[in-house]
Amino acid sequence: MKTLVTGANGFLGSAIMRHLLEAGHEVRVLVRAQSDRRNLNNFPVEICEGDLRDCASIKRAVSGCDNLFHVAADYRLWIPDPEVMYAINVIGTQSLILAAAEAGLKRIVYTSSVATLGFNPDGSPSDETSPSSLPLMTGHYKRSKFLAEQAVQQLTDQHKLSLVIVNPSTPIGPCDIKPTPTGRIVLDTLHGRMPAYLDTGLNIVHADDVAKGHLLAFEQGKAGERYILGGENMSLLQILEMIDEITGKKLKRIRLSHNIVLPAAWLMEKAAAFTGVEPRATIDGVRMAKKQMFFSSAKAMRELNYTYRPAQDAIQDAILWFCENGYYK
User: Fold this and answer.
1) pTM, whole model, 2 decimals?
2) What are phi and psi of 223, to 5 degrees?
3) Within a 10 A sphere around the Cβ of 219, how many other Cβ atoms?
4) pLDDT tens sequence across 194-242
5) Who is most buried in 30, 125, 174, 216, counting CB within 10 A?
6) What are the structural domains, with CATH classification, of the chain?
7) Which H or E element spans position 227?
8) Nearest of 45, 324, 21 to residue 173 by alpha carbon
């Protein structure tokens, strides 16, 4: 059984790749020619070079495969040219799913995001039924993932695909080589660059638990359904204090108003437009932080037997990996 994984050289994709290998899958990975491949080192996978914006390479990648895990995405809260993000996340996803349908793949798992979900009016954790729409999506990343998920659902219906959508929350853990925006929060805290915080909340989950959830969705998920793969709901302050507790530090932090941080983020983005270096704070990030991004994985737990470990385990494993790999001394 040959399974194609896109984004396998990335943070979450590499965790999924490892679990597929452990489950006995023969794994092919689609990676760009100039991509960082450290997460692929020493793993028995077939490497297929290509790009989601190149239809010919996509068709080569799916040829001869039985299954597909589409994990790759452009995940940034700031990008100098947003069209690149839409070309990868939306058009690239459509092209890949169509190619997989034409090649007759038996099973597809598409990695969406909780970013596509709305928020409940009563403030309770969002689930798969929480109302959402494109106008409610803040920033290009959320909009691109929302449009991509809509396209995937339409293709699933049109071609009667055996396709399951999963919506990870905020994964943390080892092998975050880039690192992701969440991984940068952990690193900035370790380096003492988080003296202040915003009143917001995140759903923290170990990347390996999300990877296991992907396999459960592959094995047990219903075609056309989507499943939140999340963990523990925590305020940002709780997350920072947990990192402090693990590292043995005790810091007092200042709570900042979103309206105070917005002008600073605007200035950082203006500077980034000249330097090309991603700003430490973004307008979209501050706007998203006005919401408590809490989610429920009850459906996945009920229908897939999905489980997750405490958030402290995820944070601790991330810190250990960052230390072992030279990101923090």
Assistant:
1) 0.95
2) -60, 135
3) 13
4) 998 899 999 999 999 999 999 999 999 999 999 999 999 999 999 999 9
5) 30
6) 2-172+204-230+295-308 (3.40.50.720)
7) strand 226-229
8) 324
